[in-house]
Amino acid sequence: MSKFNHILCVMTELQDPEELLNYAISVCRHHDAKLTVMLSLEPLPPNANMVMESFSYVDTFSSMQEAAKERLESLAEQFRDRYTFDTVLKMGRVSLEVAKAVKEVDADLVLKKAKTDFLDRLFGSEDMRLLSKCPVPVWMTHSGDSKQFRKVVAAVDVNYHYPPEELKVRKQLNECVVVQAAQIAVQEGAELHIVHVLDDHIDMVIYDGIVDLGAGAYTDESPDSSKEREQAVKQLIEPIRSANPDDVIDKLRIKTTVKSGSPRREIPVLVKDIDADLLVMGTVARVGIPGFLMGNTAETILSQVNCSVLALKPQGFVSPIIT
What we know:
single chain, alpha/beta, Rossmann fold, 2 domains, 10 strands
């Protein structure tokens, strides 16, 4: 998963597309990957044919498609001397159309600019749906990502007290997260921060407001658990070493952090304190059940961060929105 072969760059409008396309081209060049640019437009409202005669509705819909195709091809022509790419036009719900396009063009990464919702959160509802249900990794950017990244955070879950099969999947996902984050850090000349939050269940209960044990009632996590997690995080540096030559490793600045508390609270705090430009994390906890999506923890984390996110899936993940 450290190298992408075909990147699907998704746009939902054609106003000021240069920043996203420039970034997509940069990522494609680094991976020597094929690029497909997709324009995804919302369809006309379901009741549109009630306020227009049916032939007018069809004519309007066709006109919209033709105009969008022409603008998309014109955009491709403008960038043709820099990077050749295919174009795709889809009309419908963004998350569904992107998932279908991924399968059609055999893409292994989706790159999209985040669309802020009405509550001013970085990721709107369709972005969250895409992050959780897209069959391949999703890289969600935001304005300003054309600048160089300075700090990349890899959030991992090294709680390995699970049945053997699930444990294997979790370890593979952690390795994918750190190797991919390291590759981006190398490309950008950025610091790499590998972070883990030791899920303190007592703290989570207090945080959720279920029980108030009083100030100072709980002061520290189990020393053995903390030491075990710190060792597990440090062991994740080994896959990075295996995936890169020595001269690259020598230049890579890696820092590790293990904290106790609620992951959904502490990871966004760490991302903010580190002043991260990119968060790389897994968004699905389990496999084996088709469409088993990211849990509340991952969704809560994503709703609180204000940086770009690369969301990875474990091997064996099956998207529930395509067959």
